[in-house]
Amino acid sequence: MVNIQNLTFAYPHRPLLFDNLNLNLQAGNIYGLLGKNGAGKTTLLKILSGLLFPLKGNVEVLQSEPRHRSPSFLQELYLLPEEFYLPMLTVSQYCDSFALFYPHFDYTFFQQLLQEFELSSNDYLPDLSYGQKKKFLLAFGLATKSRLLLLDEPTNGLDIPSKSQFRRIIAAAVSDERTIVISTHQVRDMANLIDPIVILDNGKIIFNHNLSETGQKLAVQIKVDEPEVSVLYYEKTLGGYAVLDLNRDGVEGKIDIELLFNAIINKRAQIAALFGEEA
Amino acid sequence: MKKSIQFNFRRLIKLVRNEIFTNYRFWLTTIGAVAGVWVILYLLNARSGGGYGFHSTWYALILFAGGFLLSGNAFQEVQTAPRGYTYLLLPASLLEKFVSKLLVTSVGYALVTGLLYTLLSLLAKLLATLLFGQSLPVFNLLDASVIKMMGVYCILQSIFLFASIYFRRHAFTKIILAGFALLFVYSLVLMFFVRVIYSPYFNGMHWGKMMLHLDYWELPSIFWGLVAVVKWSFYLLLAPYFWLLAYLRLKETEV
Predict the structure, then answer these.
(1) What is the pTM of this model?
(2) Which of A64, A75, A93 sits opposite B1 (nearest CB)?
(3) Domain boundaries, chain B
(4) Which of B86, B87, B255 would you mutate first to test chain A, the one with the most A CBs within 10 A?
Protein backbone atom coordinates (compact mmCIF):
# COMPACT_ATOMS: atom_id res chain seq x y z
CA MET A 1 0.00 0.00 0.00
CA VAL A 2 2.84 2.38 0.87
CA ASN A 3 6.35 1.81 -0.38
CA ILE A 4 9.06 4.38 0.22
CA GLN A 5 12.61 3.79 -0.92
CA ASN A 6 15.59 6.01 -0.13
CA LEU A 7 13.49 9.08 0.51
CA THR A 8 15.49 12.27 0.99
CA PHE A 9 13.72 15.43 1.97
CA ALA A 10 14.59 18.86 3.34
CA TYR A 11 12.68 22.09 3.67
CA PRO A 12 14.30 25.00 1.77
CA HIS A 13 17.40 26.36 3.50
CA ARG A 14 17.17 23.73 6.24
CA PRO A 15 19.22 20.59 6.93
CA LEU A 16 18.01 17.21 5.70
CA LEU A 17 14.96 15.96 7.53
CA PHE A 18 14.85 12.53 5.89
CA ASP A 19 17.97 10.87 4.62
CA ASN A 20 17.48 7.62 2.68
CA LEU A 21 14.31 6.78 4.57
CA ASN A 22 12.67 3.45 3.77
CA LEU A 23 9.17 2.42 4.76
CA ASN A 24 6.74 -0.28 3.80
CA LEU A 25 3.14 -0.28 5.03
CA GLN A 26 0.74 -3.14 4.39
CA ALA A 27 -3.03 -2.99 4.03
CA GLY A 28 -5.31 -3.97 6.89
CA ASN A 29 -3.40 -2.31 9.73
CA ILE A 30 -3.65 0.71 11.99
CA TYR A 31 -0.10 2.00 12.07
CA GLY A 32 1.03 4.21 14.92
CA LEU A 33 3.58 6.71 13.66
CA LEU A 34 5.63 7.91 16.61
CA GLY A 35 8.55 10.26 16.94
CA LYS A 36 9.94 13.14 18.94
CA ASN A 37 8.93 16.73 18.20
CA GLY A 38 10.39 17.78 14.87
CA ALA A 39 11.16 14.19 13.82
CA GLY A 40 9.07 14.74 10.68
CA LYS A 41 5.86 12.81 11.34
CA THR A 42 3.62 15.47 9.82
CA THR A 43 6.06 15.98 6.95
CA LEU A 44 5.99 12.27 6.20
CA LEU A 45 2.18 12.31 6.09
CA LYS A 46 2.33 15.30 3.75
CA ILE A 47 4.75 13.50 1.44
CA LEU A 48 2.49 10.44 1.45
CA SER A 49 -0.46 12.58 0.44
CA GLY A 50 1.41 14.58 -2.21
CA LEU A 51 1.38 17.91 -0.41
CA LEU A 52 5.18 17.93 -0.30
CA PHE A 53 7.58 16.49 -2.87
CA PRO A 54 10.67 14.42 -2.08
CA LEU A 55 14.09 15.67 -3.12
CA LYS A 56 15.20 12.15 -3.98
CA GLY A 57 13.91 8.61 -3.73
CA ASN A 58 10.78 6.74 -4.72
CA VAL A 59 7.45 7.18 -3.01
CA GLU A 60 4.66 4.89 -4.12
CA VAL A 61 1.29 5.10 -2.41
CA LEU A 62 -1.74 3.12 -3.61
CA GLN A 63 0.25 2.29 -6.76
CA SER A 64 0.57 5.97 -7.61
CA GLU A 65 3.19 8.65 -7.24
CA PRO A 66 1.64 11.10 -4.74
CA ARG A 67 3.31 14.17 -6.25
CA HIS A 68 1.09 13.84 -9.37
CA ARG A 69 -2.03 14.25 -7.20
CA SER A 70 -4.09 12.30 -9.69
CA PRO A 71 -7.86 12.16 -9.06
CA SER A 72 -7.89 8.35 -8.74
CA PHE A 73 -5.17 8.58 -6.06
CA LEU A 74 -6.89 11.38 -4.16
CA GLN A 75 -10.20 9.50 -4.19
CA GLU A 76 -8.54 6.71 -2.22
CA LEU A 77 -6.72 8.88 0.30
CA TYR A 78 -7.96 11.04 3.13
CA LEU A 79 -5.73 13.20 5.32
CA LEU A 80 -7.02 14.63 8.56
CA PRO A 81 -4.38 17.25 9.38
CA GLU A 82 -3.81 18.70 12.82
CA GLU A 83 -4.56 22.17 11.48
CA PHE A 84 -7.49 22.31 9.12
CA TYR A 85 -9.79 24.72 7.36
CA LEU A 86 -13.54 24.48 7.11
CA PRO A 87 -15.57 26.75 4.82
CA MET A 88 -18.53 28.82 5.99
CA LEU A 89 -21.08 26.07 5.37
CA THR A 90 -23.34 23.81 7.35
CA VAL A 91 -22.54 20.12 7.79
CA SER A 92 -25.00 19.10 5.06
CA GLN A 93 -23.85 21.85 2.67
CA TYR A 94 -20.24 20.68 3.13
CA CYS A 95 -21.30 17.13 2.44
CA ASP A 96 -23.22 18.21 -0.70
CA SER A 97 -20.19 20.12 -1.97
CA PHE A 98 -17.35 17.72 -1.25
CA ALA A 99 -18.75 14.18 -1.02
CA LEU A 100 -19.45 14.29 -4.77
CA PHE A 101 -15.75 13.95 -5.44
CA TYR A 102 -15.50 10.60 -3.63
CA PRO A 103 -17.15 7.88 -5.72
CA HIS A 104 -17.52 5.48 -2.77
CA PHE A 105 -18.86 8.04 -0.29
CA ASP A 106 -21.29 6.35 2.12
CA TYR A 107 -23.98 8.88 3.07
CA THR A 108 -25.76 6.50 5.46
CA PHE A 109 -22.55 5.75 7.32
CA PHE A 110 -21.78 9.48 7.46
CA GLN A 111 -25.16 10.15 9.09
CA GLN A 112 -24.53 7.33 11.60
CA LEU A 113 -21.16 8.81 12.52
CA LEU A 114 -22.66 12.29 12.87
CA GLN A 115 -25.22 10.89 15.29
CA GLU A 116 -22.54 9.07 17.22
CA PHE A 117 -20.51 12.28 17.49
CA GLU A 118 -23.64 14.22 18.45
CA LEU A 119 -23.44 16.47 15.41
CA SER A 120 -26.37 17.63 13.32
CA SER A 121 -26.66 18.18 9.57
CA ASN A 122 -27.72 21.75 10.27
CA ASP A 123 -24.70 22.64 12.39
CA TYR A 124 -22.80 25.61 11.01
CA LEU A 125 -19.17 24.51 10.73
CA PRO A 126 -17.43 27.74 11.88
CA ASP A 127 -19.54 27.65 15.06
CA LEU A 128 -18.32 24.20 16.12
CA SER A 129 -15.56 23.75 18.70
CA TYR A 130 -12.14 22.48 17.60
CA GLY A 131 -12.93 18.98 18.87
CA GLN A 132 -16.33 18.94 17.13
CA LYS A 133 -14.76 20.10 13.88
CA LYS A 134 -12.24 17.30 14.18
CA LYS A 135 -14.99 14.75 14.78
CA PHE A 136 -16.87 16.09 11.76
CA LEU A 137 -13.82 15.75 9.52
CA LEU A 138 -13.12 12.29 10.90
CA ALA A 139 -16.70 11.23 10.13
CA PHE A 140 -16.37 12.65 6.63
CA GLY A 141 -13.01 10.96 6.10
CA LEU A 142 -14.32 7.58 7.21
CA ALA A 143 -17.41 7.95 5.02
CA THR A 144 -15.26 8.55 1.93
CA LYS A 145 -14.32 4.86 2.21
CA SER A 146 -10.83 5.80 1.07
CA ARG A 147 -8.26 3.01 1.30
CA LEU A 148 -5.62 5.07 3.06
CA LEU A 149 -6.55 7.24 6.01
CA LEU A 150 -3.82 9.50 7.39
CA LEU A 151 -4.60 11.03 10.78
CA ASP A 152 -2.30 13.64 12.29
CA GLU A 153 -2.71 13.93 16.06
CA PRO A 154 -6.38 12.92 15.83
CA THR A 155 -7.09 12.92 19.56
CA ASN A 156 -5.76 16.43 20.20
CA GLY A 157 -8.68 18.54 21.29
CA LEU A 158 -11.03 15.61 21.90
CA ASP A 159 -12.68 15.27 25.30
CA ILE A 160 -12.41 12.03 27.31
CA PRO A 161 -15.60 10.35 26.03
CA SER A 162 -14.71 11.34 22.47
CA LYS A 163 -11.33 9.65 22.78
CA SER A 164 -12.88 6.28 23.57
CA GLN A 165 -15.47 6.88 20.84
CA PHE A 166 -12.61 7.58 18.47
CA ARG A 167 -10.80 4.36 19.39
CA ARG A 168 -13.96 2.31 18.90
CA ILE A 169 -14.82 3.86 15.54
CA ILE A 170 -11.29 3.57 14.16
CA ALA A 171 -10.97 -0.04 15.32
CA ALA A 172 -14.21 -0.83 13.47
CA ALA A 173 -13.16 1.10 10.37
CA VAL A 174 -10.07 -0.88 9.48
CA SER A 175 -10.47 -3.66 6.93
CA ASP A 176 -8.29 -5.87 4.75
CA GLU A 177 -8.27 -3.21 2.02
CA ARG A 178 -7.88 -0.21 4.25
CA THR A 179 -4.86 1.16 6.09
CA ILE A 180 -4.93 3.81 8.76
CA VAL A 181 -1.83 5.71 9.79
CA ILE A 182 -2.06 7.65 13.03
CA SER A 183 0.67 10.11 13.83
CA THR A 184 0.57 10.94 17.51
CA HIS A 185 2.29 11.97 20.71
CA GLN A 186 -0.66 10.75 22.76
CA VAL A 187 0.32 7.10 22.88
CA ARG A 188 -1.88 6.44 25.91
CA ASP A 189 -4.92 7.50 23.85
CA MET A 190 -3.94 4.93 21.28
CA ALA A 191 -3.49 1.96 23.59
CA ASN A 192 -5.02 -1.23 22.13
CA LEU A 193 -5.52 0.54 18.83
CA ILE A 194 -2.25 1.12 17.01
CA ASP A 195 -0.37 -1.92 15.82
CA PRO A 196 2.23 -2.05 14.23
CA ILE A 197 4.35 0.72 15.66
CA VAL A 198 6.51 2.84 13.36
CA ILE A 199 9.12 5.07 14.97
CA LEU A 200 10.74 7.94 13.15
CA ASP A 201 13.99 9.40 14.45
CA ASN A 202 16.92 11.33 12.98
CA GLY A 203 15.54 11.17 9.45
CA LYS A 204 15.01 7.41 9.37
CA ILE A 205 12.46 4.78 10.32
CA ILE A 206 14.16 3.08 13.23
CA PHE A 207 11.37 0.68 14.18
CA ASN A 208 8.51 -0.88 12.22
CA HIS A 209 7.15 -3.99 13.95
CA ASN A 210 3.86 -5.23 15.26
CA LEU A 211 3.20 -5.59 18.96
CA SER A 212 2.95 -9.38 18.83
CA GLU A 213 6.44 -9.71 17.37
CA THR A 214 7.70 -7.13 19.85
CA GLY A 215 6.00 -8.95 22.74
CA GLN A 216 7.81 -12.16 21.80
CA LYS A 217 11.17 -10.47 22.01
CA LEU A 218 10.60 -7.95 24.80
CA ALA A 219 8.72 -7.96 28.07
CA VAL A 220 7.55 -5.26 30.44
CA GLN A 221 7.87 -5.66 34.18
CA ILE A 222 7.06 -3.41 37.09
CA LYS A 223 9.61 -3.51 39.89
CA VAL A 224 9.69 -1.82 43.24
CA ASP A 225 13.50 -1.72 43.56
CA GLU A 226 15.81 -0.09 41.08
CA PRO A 227 16.67 -2.73 38.44
CA GLU A 228 20.21 -3.86 37.62
CA VAL A 229 22.09 -1.95 34.96
CA SER A 230 22.07 -5.05 32.75
CA VAL A 231 18.35 -4.68 31.91
CA LEU A 232 17.62 -3.26 28.49
CA TYR A 233 15.82 -0.14 29.66
CA TYR A 234 13.98 1.14 32.70
CA GLU A 235 12.40 4.31 33.94
CA LYS A 236 11.09 5.50 37.24
CA THR A 237 7.35 5.48 37.66
CA LEU A 238 5.02 6.20 40.54
CA GLY A 239 5.90 3.70 43.26
CA GLY A 240 8.56 1.76 41.36
CA TYR A 241 10.25 1.15 38.03
CA ALA A 242 8.90 0.15 34.63
CA VAL A 243 11.40 -2.20 33.04
CA LEU A 244 11.69 -3.30 29.43
CA ASP A 245 13.94 -6.28 29.02
CA LEU A 246 14.38 -9.38 26.91
CA ASN A 247 11.46 -11.76 27.00
CA ARG A 248 13.22 -14.67 28.64
CA ASP A 249 10.26 -16.97 29.40
CA GLY A 250 8.84 -16.79 25.85
CA VAL A 251 5.33 -15.89 26.99
CA GLU A 252 4.03 -12.99 24.90
CA GLY A 253 3.07 -10.15 27.19
CA LYS A 254 1.49 -6.75 26.78
CA ILE A 255 3.81 -3.98 25.65
CA ASP A 256 3.59 -0.47 27.04
CA ILE A 257 4.01 1.67 23.90
CA GLU A 258 5.38 4.69 25.77
CA LEU A 259 8.01 2.58 27.48
CA LEU A 260 8.85 0.88 24.19
CA PHE A 261 9.22 4.25 22.45
CA ASN A 262 11.55 5.60 25.15
CA ALA A 263 13.58 2.40 25.11
CA ILE A 264 13.99 2.51 21.33
CA ILE A 265 15.03 6.15 21.36
CA ASN A 266 17.58 5.54 24.16
CA LYS A 267 18.79 2.02 23.35
CA ARG A 268 18.39 1.99 19.60
CA ALA A 269 21.39 -0.22 18.78
CA GLN A 270 20.52 -2.98 21.26
CA ILE A 271 16.88 -3.14 20.21
CA ALA A 272 17.74 -3.07 16.51
CA ALA A 273 20.13 -5.98 17.04
CA LEU A 274 17.38 -7.89 18.82
CA PHE A 275 15.21 -7.56 15.69
CA GLY A 276 18.12 -8.50 13.45
CA GLU A 277 18.50 -5.00 12.03
CA GLU A 278 21.32 -2.49 11.79
CA ALA A 279 21.00 0.61 13.94
CA MET B 1 1.90 2.91 -11.48
CA LYS B 2 -1.71 3.70 -12.27
CA LYS B 3 -2.73 6.27 -14.87
CA SER B 4 -5.90 8.24 -14.49
CA ILE B 5 -8.04 10.58 -16.55
CA GLN B 6 -6.73 14.09 -16.06
CA PHE B 7 -9.77 15.92 -17.37
CA ASN B 8 -13.33 15.07 -16.62
CA PHE B 9 -16.08 17.50 -17.56
CA ARG B 10 -18.42 16.42 -14.75
CA ARG B 11 -15.72 17.00 -12.15
CA LEU B 12 -15.08 20.41 -13.68
CA ILE B 13 -18.75 21.32 -13.28
CA LYS B 14 -18.62 20.19 -9.64
CA LEU B 15 -15.54 22.33 -9.06
CA VAL B 16 -17.12 25.41 -10.64
CA ARG B 17 -20.21 24.81 -8.52
CA ASN B 18 -18.02 24.59 -5.41
CA GLU B 19 -16.09 27.74 -6.34
CA ILE B 20 -19.35 29.66 -6.30
CA PHE B 21 -21.26 27.80 -3.63
CA THR B 22 -18.62 27.58 -0.89
CA ASN B 23 -18.18 31.37 -1.02
CA TYR B 24 -21.79 32.32 -1.58
CA ARG B 25 -22.01 34.45 1.59
CA PHE B 26 -19.04 36.51 0.41
CA TRP B 27 -20.54 36.92 -3.07
CA LEU B 28 -23.92 37.99 -1.74
CA THR B 29 -22.40 40.51 0.69
CA THR B 30 -20.09 42.00 -1.96
CA ILE B 31 -22.78 42.19 -4.63
CA GLY B 32 -25.18 43.78 -2.12
CA ALA B 33 -22.65 46.39 -1.01
CA VAL B 34 -21.54 47.34 -4.54
CA ALA B 35 -25.11 47.40 -5.83
CA GLY B 36 -26.20 49.66 -2.94
CA VAL B 37 -23.46 52.23 -3.61
CA TRP B 38 -24.05 52.05 -7.35
CA VAL B 39 -27.81 52.67 -7.10
CA ILE B 40 -27.23 55.78 -4.96
CA LEU B 41 -24.74 57.15 -7.49
CA TYR B 42 -27.12 56.32 -10.33
CA LEU B 43 -29.98 58.16 -8.69
CA LEU B 44 -27.80 61.21 -7.99
CA ASN B 45 -26.73 61.30 -11.63
CA ALA B 46 -30.26 60.76 -12.90
CA ARG B 47 -31.61 63.55 -10.70
CA SER B 48 -29.03 66.07 -11.88
CA GLY B 49 -29.76 65.11 -15.48
CA GLY B 50 -26.10 64.25 -16.08
CA GLY B 51 -24.64 60.82 -16.29
CA TYR B 52 -22.95 60.91 -19.67
CA GLY B 53 -20.59 57.96 -19.75
CA PHE B 54 -21.92 56.74 -16.40
CA HIS B 55 -22.28 53.11 -17.47
CA SER B 56 -19.02 52.88 -19.38
CA THR B 57 -17.12 54.26 -16.37
CA TRP B 58 -18.85 52.19 -13.70
CA TYR B 59 -19.04 48.96 -15.61
CA ALA B 60 -15.34 49.24 -16.49
CA LEU B 61 -14.52 49.91 -12.84
CA ILE B 62 -16.55 46.93 -11.61
CA LEU B 63 -15.23 44.66 -14.34
CA PHE B 64 -11.57 45.56 -14.14
CA ALA B 65 -11.01 46.52 -10.49
CA GLY B 66 -13.30 43.83 -9.09
CA GLY B 67 -12.12 41.21 -11.53
CA PHE B 68 -8.44 41.89 -10.94
CA LEU B 69 -9.00 41.73 -7.19
CA LEU B 70 -10.83 38.43 -7.60
CA SER B 71 -8.22 36.97 -9.94
CA GLY B 72 -5.35 38.23 -7.77
CA ASN B 73 -6.78 36.27 -4.85
CA ALA B 74 -7.95 33.20 -6.79
CA PHE B 75 -5.11 30.89 -5.83
CA GLN B 76 -4.12 32.52 -2.55
CA GLU B 77 -5.99 29.79 -0.65
CA VAL B 78 -3.62 27.22 -2.12
CA GLN B 79 -0.65 29.01 -0.57
CA THR B 80 -1.88 28.99 3.03
CA ALA B 81 -1.40 25.76 4.93
CA PRO B 82 -4.81 24.51 6.10
CA ARG B 83 -6.79 25.86 3.12
CA GLY B 84 -4.18 24.55 0.74
CA TYR B 85 -4.57 21.01 2.13
CA THR B 86 -8.30 21.01 1.40
CA TYR B 87 -7.80 22.40 -2.08
CA LEU B 88 -4.91 20.25 -3.20
CA LEU B 89 -6.30 17.03 -1.74
CA LEU B 90 -9.74 17.40 -3.30
CA PRO B 91 -10.05 14.50 -5.77
CA ALA B 92 -9.81 16.37 -9.06
CA SER B 93 -6.88 16.88 -11.39
CA LEU B 94 -4.84 20.07 -11.23
CA LEU B 95 -5.92 20.87 -14.77
CA GLU B 96 -9.58 20.69 -13.74
CA LYS B 97 -8.87 22.80 -10.67
CA PHE B 98 -7.03 25.36 -12.76
CA VAL B 99 -9.68 25.54 -15.48
CA SER B 100 -12.44 25.96 -12.89
CA LYS B 101 -10.66 28.95 -11.31
CA LEU B 102 -9.97 30.37 -14.75
CA LEU B 103 -13.59 30.06 -15.87
CA VAL B 104 -14.95 31.63 -12.70
CA THR B 105 -12.52 34.56 -12.64
CA SER B 106 -12.49 35.36 -16.39
CA VAL B 107 -15.50 34.59 -18.60
CA GLY B 108 -17.72 33.72 -15.64
CA TYR B 109 -17.00 36.96 -13.81
CA ALA B 110 -17.33 39.10 -16.96
CA LEU B 111 -20.67 37.53 -17.91
CA VAL B 112 -22.18 37.52 -14.43
CA THR B 113 -21.20 41.14 -13.73
CA GLY B 114 -22.51 42.08 -17.19
CA LEU B 115 -25.87 40.41 -16.59
CA LEU B 116 -26.21 41.76 -13.05
CA TYR B 117 -25.23 45.23 -14.21
CA THR B 118 -27.87 45.10 -16.97
CA LEU B 119 -30.51 43.94 -14.51
CA LEU B 120 -29.56 46.56 -11.98
CA SER B 121 -29.53 49.34 -14.58
CA LEU B 122 -33.08 48.36 -15.58
CA LEU B 123 -34.24 48.44 -11.96
CA ALA B 124 -32.44 51.73 -11.32
CA LYS B 125 -33.98 53.25 -14.46
CA LEU B 126 -37.43 52.26 -13.22
CA LEU B 127 -36.74 53.71 -9.80
CA ALA B 128 -35.27 56.95 -11.17
CA THR B 129 -38.21 57.43 -13.53
CA LEU B 130 -40.64 56.95 -10.66
CA LEU B 131 -38.74 59.34 -8.38
CA PHE B 132 -37.54 62.09 -10.73
CA GLY B 133 -39.32 61.47 -14.01
CA GLN B 134 -35.96 61.11 -15.76
CA SER B 135 -33.26 58.48 -15.94
CA LEU B 136 -30.04 57.39 -17.61
CA PRO B 137 -29.98 55.13 -20.66
CA VAL B 138 -30.15 51.36 -20.09
CA PHE B 139 -26.82 49.57 -20.07
CA ASN B 140 -26.39 47.57 -23.26
CA LEU B 141 -24.49 44.36 -22.62
CA LEU B 142 -24.33 43.57 -26.32
CA ASP B 143 -22.70 46.87 -27.25
CA ALA B 144 -19.48 46.30 -29.21
CA SER B 145 -17.44 48.42 -26.77
CA VAL B 146 -18.74 46.39 -23.79
CA ILE B 147 -17.92 43.09 -25.47
CA LYS B 148 -14.44 44.37 -26.36
CA MET B 149 -14.00 45.51 -22.75
CA MET B 150 -14.87 41.99 -21.57
CA GLY B 151 -12.38 40.50 -24.01
CA VAL B 152 -9.61 42.81 -22.84
CA TYR B 153 -10.48 41.97 -19.24
CA CYS B 154 -10.19 38.23 -19.92
CA ILE B 155 -6.73 38.80 -21.39
CA LEU B 156 -5.42 41.09 -18.65
CA GLN B 157 -6.83 39.02 -15.78
CA SER B 158 -4.47 36.19 -16.77
CA ILE B 159 -1.61 38.28 -15.32
CA PHE B 160 -3.41 38.59 -11.99
CA LEU B 161 -4.32 34.92 -12.01
CA PHE B 162 -0.67 34.05 -12.48
CA ALA B 163 0.31 36.49 -9.70
CA SER B 164 -2.11 34.82 -7.30
CA ILE B 165 -0.28 31.52 -7.61
CA TYR B 166 3.21 33.01 -7.98
CA PHE B 167 3.17 35.19 -4.87
CA ARG B 168 2.47 33.52 -1.56
CA ARG B 169 0.84 36.60 -0.03
CA HIS B 170 -0.61 39.97 -1.11
CA ALA B 171 -0.55 38.97 -4.78
CA PHE B 172 -2.84 41.81 -5.88
CA THR B 173 -0.71 44.53 -4.25
CA LYS B 174 2.51 42.98 -5.51
CA ILE B 175 1.36 42.75 -9.12
CA ILE B 176 0.15 46.37 -9.03
CA LEU B 177 3.53 47.46 -7.65
CA ALA B 178 5.32 45.31 -10.22
CA GLY B 179 3.17 46.93 -12.93
CA PHE B 180 4.14 50.40 -11.75
CA ALA B 181 7.81 49.40 -11.62
CA LEU B 182 7.63 48.07 -15.19
CA LEU B 183 5.86 51.20 -16.35
CA PHE B 184 8.52 53.35 -14.73
CA VAL B 185 11.34 51.40 -16.41
CA TYR B 186 9.46 51.51 -19.72
CA SER B 187 9.07 55.31 -19.40
CA LEU B 188 12.77 55.75 -18.70
CA VAL B 189 13.75 53.64 -21.72
CA LEU B 190 11.27 55.49 -23.92
CA MET B 191 12.57 58.85 -22.70
CA PHE B 192 16.11 57.76 -23.46
CA PHE B 193 15.26 56.75 -27.03
CA VAL B 194 13.24 59.87 -27.67
CA ARG B 195 16.16 61.96 -26.42
CA VAL B 196 18.62 60.12 -28.68
CA ILE B 197 16.46 59.85 -31.82
CA TYR B 198 15.10 63.39 -31.67
CA SER B 199 18.23 65.02 -30.30
CA PRO B 200 18.06 68.00 -32.76
CA TYR B 201 14.74 68.98 -31.23
CA PHE B 202 16.15 69.13 -27.72
CA ASN B 203 17.90 71.95 -25.94
CA GLY B 204 19.72 70.14 -23.11
CA MET B 205 16.99 68.14 -21.44
CA HIS B 206 14.28 70.53 -22.64
CA TRP B 207 12.13 70.11 -25.69
CA GLY B 208 12.91 72.85 -28.23
CA LYS B 209 10.36 75.27 -29.60
CA MET B 210 10.32 73.61 -33.02
CA MET B 211 7.21 71.69 -33.92
CA LEU B 212 7.76 68.00 -34.43
CA HIS B 213 5.78 66.98 -37.45
CA LEU B 214 4.92 63.31 -37.46
CA ASP B 215 2.81 61.88 -40.22
CA TYR B 216 1.99 58.36 -39.12
CA TRP B 217 1.00 57.22 -42.56
CA GLU B 218 4.46 58.05 -43.85
CA LEU B 219 6.14 55.74 -41.34
CA PRO B 220 7.89 52.73 -42.87
CA SER B 221 5.85 49.54 -43.25
CA ILE B 222 8.08 47.76 -40.73
CA PHE B 223 6.61 50.04 -38.05
CA TRP B 224 3.08 48.96 -38.91
CA GLY B 225 4.22 45.35 -39.05
CA LEU B 226 5.60 45.74 -35.56
CA VAL B 227 2.37 47.33 -34.35
CA ALA B 228 0.40 44.39 -35.77
CA VAL B 229 2.70 41.88 -34.08
CA VAL B 230 2.30 43.61 -30.70
CA LYS B 231 -1.46 43.89 -31.14
CA TRP B 232 -2.01 40.26 -32.09
CA SER B 233 0.45 39.05 -29.46
CA PHE B 234 -1.67 40.85 -26.91
CA TYR B 235 -4.92 39.37 -28.21
CA LEU B 236 -3.72 35.83 -28.88
CA LEU B 237 -0.59 35.10 -26.87
CA LEU B 238 -0.59 37.07 -23.63
CA ALA B 239 -3.40 35.20 -21.88
CA PRO B 240 -2.35 31.64 -22.90
CA TYR B 241 1.20 32.47 -21.86
CA PHE B 242 0.19 33.48 -18.33
CA TRP B 243 -2.32 30.62 -18.07
CA LEU B 244 0.40 28.15 -18.90
CA LEU B 245 2.77 29.73 -16.37
CA ALA B 246 0.06 29.69 -13.71
CA TYR B 247 -0.81 26.04 -14.39
CA LEU B 248 2.83 24.96 -14.22
CA ARG B 249 3.27 26.89 -11.00
CA LEU B 250 0.17 25.22 -9.53
CA LYS B 251 1.58 21.81 -10.43
CA GLU B 252 4.69 22.43 -8.38
CA THR B 253 2.95 24.07 -5.41
CA GLU B 254 3.73 22.45 -2.06
CA VAL B 255 2.14 23.25 1.30
Answers:
(1) 0.88
(2) A64
(3) 9-254
(4) B86
A50 close to B (CB below 8 A): yes
Whether the per-residue pLDDT at B77 is higher than 90: the answer is no
What's the gap in Å between the CA of A67 and the closest CA on chain B? 9
Q: What is chain A's mean pLDDT, rounded?
A: 93
CA distance A94 to chain B (A): 8
In A, minimum Cα distance to B23 occurs at A88
Give the distance from residue A86's alpha carbon to the nearest chain B alpha carbon, in angstroms: 8
Counting one residue from A and one from B, how many pairs have CB atoms under 8 Å apart? Answer: 83
**3-state DSSP call for residue B220?**
coil
The verdict on a CB contact (< 8 Å) between A85 and B5 is no
B86-109, pLDDT tens digit by residue? Answer: 999 999 999 999 999 999 999 999
pLDDT digits (tens, 9 = 90+) for A10-47: 999 999 999 999 999 999 999 999 999 999 999 999 99
Instruction: Give the lowest-confidence range in A20-29, A234-243, B153-162.
Output: A234-243
